[in-house]
Amino acid sequence: MDAGDGRSRRVRSSRRTLGVPPYARAAISRARHHPHEVPPGAPGERSGSCYRTGVAAERTERTNEQWLEELRSSSRRASDAALTDLRALAAAAVRSAARAARAGESTLEDLTQVALVHVLRQLGRFEGRSRFTTWVYAVAVRAALSELRRAAYRASSAPLPDEADEPASTTAPPPARAARNEIVALMHRVIERDLTERQRAALLGELDGRPRAELAATLGTNPNALAKLLFDARERLLTGLRDAGITDDEVSEVFEL
Amino acid sequence: MALDPEKIRKLARMTLETRPAGICCGDWIHLVAEYVEARRRGDALDERLLVVEKHARACPSCASELEVLRRLVADENAGA
Questions:
Q1: What values do phi and psi take at A73, rounded to 5?
Q2: Which residues, numbered 167 to 196 in chain A, qualify as contacts with chain B under a Cβ-Cβ cut-off of 8 Å?
Q3: How many Å apart are CA B33 and CA A140, to the nearest integer?
Q4: Is the ipTM of this complex over 0.90?
Q5: pLDDT per residue over A31-58, tens digit each?
């Protein structure tokens, strides 16, 4: 399973750069451009065992507060050491996710980079109610499975409208627009293919701003049943997005919601 | 059928406001670590964490993530 044609790289790139908090930018930059850079004396340098075993058994133990402090530290040495261990955690999570998805090992490195960036972007949402490492696993597993779902979806679906309708161009669309186009095309596809006729009529009526009572009468139903139709349609859309590897955060960012 | 940009944005907002079992996937991911740890300790789950289970039953994507996370944490605790 390949998670990385040229187009998907552009789209992923836009996802990686949207909404990154300032303290994470330098770390993300280092993670992207020097993924194997291990600062002298950093725990990951000892044996690289995190990659071999799939679980970060030899990382430096830190409290939740220490993790956050070091990752946000202005000290390059402190943040590099934490970043190295964080990467090992992400790698372990990615390996487990890939195993569950029966994906090959060829994309593990790319997936780890994606997962690491997701974790760094989401740091501000960690509330300290669990161990930091478990939270990292959760975010990294989602990032990896989302990428793998996206790759599977691309492999099984027809070209997106913007690809099919436009002549091949050597000029790539801006990453944010590419991501938006992908989501818009997917939403259209779910509406056209996955919704029932009544769900589609209810949803399009709602989008047109038609009053619920009038819409219910048109569909020969009552407001409660209409609400259920609408909920089911929206849930199907949500599932369609998730099945294609697109997360809520990405939708929020792309549409600035 | 081609929805105009305004409707697409409205649809995106409506979709994100859909919350299987009362919580969206974006919030669920930030609760699931606490849920998995509480489960491992055998703690009684309060309503806030029970939502994690309910959501996973309604959302196949989150359910698969929960399964991987459970296994990962179990492996780590077993010293794998």
A1: -65, 145
A2: 183-184, 187-188, 191-192
A3: 12
A4: no
A5: 665 555 534 333 333 333 333 334 445 6
